[in-house]
Each structure stands twice: as C-alpha cells, then as structure tokens.
C-alpha cells in the first residue's frame, strides 16, 4: 500500500509539472494584460483530469503549480501584495478543477460519450465552474490593482472563455487517448493528409489570405468521419490553438482595431468550433458503435454458436439467390445434406460435450475441403448442408467423397478418448427451370435417408 501511495504522489507531481509548464507555455504564446493572464488557460483542463483521477489529493499540487507559474508575472506588475493575490489566484485555480470534477461526475456519470452530453459538459463542466472562479479572480485582481474595476466585466468574460476552452481542448484529447488512442493505417493516412492541408490553410490564414482560417472547421468535420476521437481531438486542439497564437501576435482574420472585440470574437469562434467538432466526433463514434453492435447481433443471429457455421436462417436466402441466378444464367448448382452416423449413441456413451466436439470436427473438415464460394451450413442437430454454386454434381461428388474419407479416417479426442465417427451424405443437383429450390433440398434429404438405409458412411445421389 505504501508503494502505491508513493507511486501516486509521483504521478500527481509529474502531472502538476505538466500543469506548470503549460501555464508558462500559455503565458509565453498568448499573454494579455497583466502578463500572466492568457487567451487560453490549458491548465484548467489539466486540473480537471487530475481531480478526476486523484480527487482532493491533487488540489495542493495544483495550487502550488499555479502559484509557481503566476508569481513572477504578478510580482513584475505594479499591483499590491503579489504573494497574497497570487495565492488567491492559485486557490481559485484549484477550485475550478474540483468544481468541474463534481459537475462531471454528477451530470455525466457515464462520461462524455454521446453528442447529447455536450450541453451538460459545456454548461456545467466548462462554463459554471470557470464562471465561479473567474468572479474570484477578477475581484482579486481588481482589489490588488492589477486591473481597473472598469475592466472587470470584459476581463471576467475572457477568463471564462479561456478557462472553459482549456477544459474543452485538454479533456477531449485526454478522453480520445483514454478510450481509443490507437489508430489504423487508414486513419493515420487521413490524419497525415489533413495535417498537411491544415498547415497550408493556417499559413495562408496568418499571411496573405486571412479567410482561409475558416475552412479549417469543414476540414475537421470531414476528418471526424474518418478518424477516431483521439485523432480528431488532437488535430482540432492544435489547429484552434494555432489560431489563438496567431491572433495574440497580431495575425489572422481576428486582428481588428478593438482588442477586446477581437479577443471575444476569437474565443467565441474557437470555443463554438471546438464544441461542434467534438459533437460530430462523438456522434460519429456513437453511430459506429451502433453499427458494430448491429453487425455483431446479425452475425450472432445468422451463425451457429457451436461450430461457427451459418445457420438455416442465413442459408435459405443464399439458396434462393443461387436458385434465381441459375434460372437467369442457365447454370446449375448442387446441394448436399450430411448427417453424422449413430450420433445419438455418441451422446449417450460419452456425453453431450463429446458430441459437440464431433460436430465441430465435421464442420472443420467440411470447411477445409470446400471452396470459398461454397456455403457450409448447420441445418440443425447433427445435420449439415453444403451449397455448391455453379457446380455440376460430378464436381461436387469429388469434394464430398474427399470430406467423407477425411472424416472417416480421422478421430476426435474428447476427455482423453478417441472417437471415430462416419458421415452419410445425400446430394442433388438443380434439374432445370421447372424445379423449385425447396425441391432440390427435398431430393438431397431423401438421398440422405437412402444413404442411411443402405448402410451409412456413403454418398447417394438424389434423382
């Protein structure tokens, strides 16, 4: 237990260092007056992640990291009592993480999984906690003389957006990495291509063609349908952060004569864009999950759980399709029925688990000796079927005899016992346009019973 606590402290401290460096990163790239207030406060997102992982134990580390990151900037400004006001700001930074954590657990107990979760996430996890702490921060800076009271309203709005955006950008990357961080080769190719186009658009947007920046959002929308959440969230966060950096350095489409208006429009654009992209990515992931679940249910409904072969329900439409194709093209097809000999005595003598092993062994032999286009089906019980599309009966008989001999010469090991079993086979070929598909199956079935009656372990052709 002591080692676990020691490891936990190391992890919390390491994450707090990330908090500290991101704070410096933010202040260096997009600083506003005073020098330690930024357009984007990524540490608020780190604080949420820390609190979700380690709860109240992370608060002292967040407060210390915030204090260390902010104190030099506060001391350099002409305000009063930098130590006290930095401490108040650091405590507020710790509060935003813990308030956001409680809101997240209350309003999103299953996590951020659906597009419907965006409203409670954006409102209760992002906006409400940051609004509470932004009031404290704004009053704290005004009391200390770092900003004038007239600036507090605009300053409050900027803090709310900066901290909320930090939570949004960091958490979406964290959840994407936590849920599905691995990407396929196709996804990596999409990511590489999008990154290249994104770089071109950002370069144009920051230099000669500011409007090119607005093409980033539709590009991210396209990406969200082709890459998992981690890839979309990462590219979205990096590209939107690049826009903020450019604006802070007087480049891009948000550079206007009124800095307050410019900053607000920028943050509103970035925040709404990030929420939109995240919502589309979550919706796409939800739809993909539904499709996969549907495919799994369909697969389960159409396959025999013991042998893995298709069942009668899935087989009949294939037979009907092949019959219709034979009618159109004039080609033929062949159908065979297979039945294990004396299977009941195997179950009685060795138990049903041994009988199951024999069924699986026959299924494996049939699959190994059939073509990829042939349909091998478990009709029910110990009866199996094989549909040979576009196959004359002579060709089918060669494959069926191979199956019969292979199974006759093999044995099945069950509970340390070698079990030798044979199989009887009835086969029929499509006779022409006057015959229905059900009649082909009936002829094969009658031939199977004839094979049983004539001594088993043989093939009989149905006439």
Automatic annotation (TrEMBL):
Compartment(s): Cell membrane
Cofactor requirement: Mg(2+)
Keyword annotations: Cell membrane, Membrane, Transmembrane, Transmembrane helix
GO biological process, one term: negative regulation of bacterial-type flagellum-dependent cell motility
Domain named GGDEF: residues: 331-463
Membrane topology value: Multi-pass membrane protein
Residue spans crossing the bilayer: 9-32, 44-71, 83-101, 121-143, 155-174, 194-222, 229-252, 264-282
Annotated EC: 2.7.7.65
MF-aspect GO terms: diguanylate cyclase activity
GO terms under cellular component: plasma membrane
CDD domains: GGDEF (cd01949)
Name of protein: diguanylate cyclase
Main location: membrane
Pfam families cross-referenced by the UniProt entry: GGDEF (PF00990), MASE1 (PF05231)
SMART domains attached to this UniProt entry: GGDEF
SUPFAM superfamilies: Nucleotide cyclase
Catalyzed reaction equations: 2 GTP = 3',3'-c-di-GMP + 2 diphosphate
């Amino acid at each position: 237990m002591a080692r676990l606590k020691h490891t936990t402290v190391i992890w919390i401290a390491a994450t707090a260092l990330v908090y500290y460096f991101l704070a410096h990163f933010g202040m260096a790239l997009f600083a506003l007056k005073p020098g330690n207030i930024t357009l984007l406060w990524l540490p608020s997102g780190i604080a949420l992640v820390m609190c979700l992982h380690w709860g109240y134990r992370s608060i002292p580390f967040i407060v210390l990291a915030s204090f260390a990151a902010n104190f030099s900037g506060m001391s350099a400004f002409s305000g009063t009592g930098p130590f006290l006001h930095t401490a108040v700001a650091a405590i507020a930074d710790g509060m935003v993480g813990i308030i956001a954590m409680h809101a997240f657990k209350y309003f999103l107990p299953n996590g951020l999984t659906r597009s419907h979760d965006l409203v409670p996430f954006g409102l209760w996890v992002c906006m409400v906690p940051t609004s509470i702490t932004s009031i404290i921060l704004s009053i704290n800076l005004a009391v200390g003389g770092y900003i004038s009271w007239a600036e507090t309203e605009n300053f409050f709005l900027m803090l709310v957006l900066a901290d909320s955006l930090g939570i949004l950008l960091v958490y979406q990357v964290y959840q994407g990495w936590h849920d599905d961080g691995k990407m396929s080769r196709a996804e990596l190719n999409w990511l590489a291509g999008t990154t290249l186009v994104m770089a071109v658009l950002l370069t144009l947007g920051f230099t000669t063609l500011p409007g090119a920046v607005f093409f980033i959002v539709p590009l991210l929308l396209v990406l969200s349908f082709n890459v998992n959440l981690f890839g979309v969230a990462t590219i979205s966060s990096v590209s939107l952060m690049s826009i903020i950096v450019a604006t802070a350095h007087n480049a891009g489409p948000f550079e206007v004569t009124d800095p307050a208006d410019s900053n607000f429009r920028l943050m509103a654009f970035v925040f709404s864009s990030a929420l939109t992209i995240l919502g589309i990515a979550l919706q796409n992931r939800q739809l993909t999950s539904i499709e996969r679940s549907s495919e799994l249910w369909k697969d389960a409904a159409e396959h025999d759980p013991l042998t893995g072969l298709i069942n009668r329900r899935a087989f009949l439409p294939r037979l009907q399709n092949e019959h219709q194709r034979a009618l159109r093209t004039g080609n033929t097809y062949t159908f065979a029925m297979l039945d294990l000999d004396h299977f009941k005595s195997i179950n009685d003598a060795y138990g049903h688990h041994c009988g199951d092993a024999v069924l699986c062994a026959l299924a494996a032999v049939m699959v190994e000796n059939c073509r990829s286009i042939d349909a091998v089906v478990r009709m029910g019980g110990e009866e199996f079927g094989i549909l040979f599309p576009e196959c004359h009966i002579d060709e089918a008989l060669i494959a069926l005899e191979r199956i019969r001999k292979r199974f006759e010469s093999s044995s099945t090991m069950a509970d340390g016992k070698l079990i030798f079993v044979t199989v009887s086979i009835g086969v029929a070929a499509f006779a022409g346009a006057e015959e229905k598909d059900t009649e082909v199956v009936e002829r094969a079935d009658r031939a199977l019973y004839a094979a049983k009656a004539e001594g088993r372990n043989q093939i009989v052709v149905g006439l």
